[in-house]
Amino acid sequence: MTSIVSRDRTTVLIPGVVLAGGSSTRMGSPKALLPLGAGTFLSQVLTTLRASGLDDLVVVTGAHDAEIRQAVETLAMPGVRVVHNAQHADGQVASLRAALHVVDHPGIAAVLVTLVDHPLVKAETVRRLIDAWAQVRAPVVRPVFEGRHGHPVIFASEVFGALWAVPVDAGARAVVRALGDAVHDVPVDDPGVCADVDTPDDYARIARVET
Question: What is the CATH T-level fold of the domain 4-210, as seen in this structure?
Answer without folding.
Answer: Spore Coat Polysaccharide Biosynthesis Protein SpsA; Chain A (3.90.550)
